[in-house]
Amino acid sequence: MLLVLLGATAGQAVVWYGGQFYSLFFLTQTLKVDGTTANLLIAAALALATPFFVIFGWLSDKIGRKKIILAGCLLAALTYFPIFKGLTHFANPAVEEARQSAPATVVADPATCSFQFDPIGKAKFTNSCDVAAAALAKAGVPYAIKPAAAGSLAQVSIGGTQVPAYEAAGLGKDEAKAKSDAFGKQLKGALTAAGYPEKADPARINKPMTLLLLWILVIYVTMVYGPIAAYLVELFPTRIRYTSMSLPYHIGNGWFGGFLPTISFALVAATGNMYYGLWYPIGIALMTFVIGLFFLRETKDVDITK
């Protein structure tokens, strides 16, 4: 079951979450495409790609389940970076332009910068570095992190403008809100002056190309998902089949896939690279490809009555 988890369902899960959910998150939260447009584009990509669930299921009857699932994982791992960079170029080119003309930098004591992993939304990141990094990440602004003297207050540098962050530890609710509002207002002003868009300009969204890239992402989903049910059924004998296939499927999708948004955001906040969160699904997909290739068998001709 462990091999099936690591060599099949974990990769299937991150490719599924990456293609259907993280792509929507990236459009709306990172590229600031309005929700209606983003949801319509995702819905259109899903509608156009849905027949391929059946096509790849049928094809797996001909050439094998494992080949198609692992091909989907490998293709996703090899192309996620160019596809998501393409989404930036076609959905919100102003982000690219501002990044080149006025790069953002968080200048902070490295010891005060946390890895902002918060799976249940309860953690409090109160150091000034964390405040600055989270604000930029949530604004969809890529940034570099530059070390500063120990104990110094973090600040955001945008072009030639400096915006000091604040320490939130020990502040009362009202004082924390006042400082957050003041920092947010000052940061927003600096970003606007530097050309960073608050929202994606609808007139500059290349909808056909954005839809094409989203469709490719969903095609990967259909490759890993179309054959997976038959593959799991055929991997295990009848007497232990339900338990044996259920455990790796639900752990793979619930844990490996379910943590994708949280881990990816933490990676982005830790590095300032808006694409760095893709390393999580890429790493899991590559792991699944290698383990599945060498340790799992093909099953398309297995007699499931035994």
Beta-strand percent range: 5-15%
Q: Please tell me the total number of domains.
A: 2
- Based on CA atoms alone, the radius of gyration comes out at 22 Å
CATH class of the largest domain: Mainly Alpha
CATH homologous superfamily grouping of the largest domain: MFS general substrate transporter like domains
Task: Return the average pLDDT rounded to an integer.
Answer: 90
Fill in the CATH topology of the largest domain.
Growth Hormone, Chain: A
Biggest sheet overview: 4 strands, mixed
Q: Could you list the spans in which at least 5 consecutive residues all have pLDDT below 50?
A: none
Instruction: Give the strand order of the largest sheet, numbering strands 1, 2, ... along the chain.
Output: 2-1-3-4
Give the class from helix and strand content and strand pairing.
mainly alpha
Number of contiguous helices: 12
Intertermini distance: 18 Å
Overall 3D form: elongated
Tell me the CATH architecture of the largest domain. Answer: Up-down Bundle
GO molecular function, one term: transmembrane transporter activity
GO cellular component, one term: plasma membrane
Keywords: Cell membrane, Membrane, Transmembrane, Transmembrane helix, Transport
Subcellular location: Cell membrane
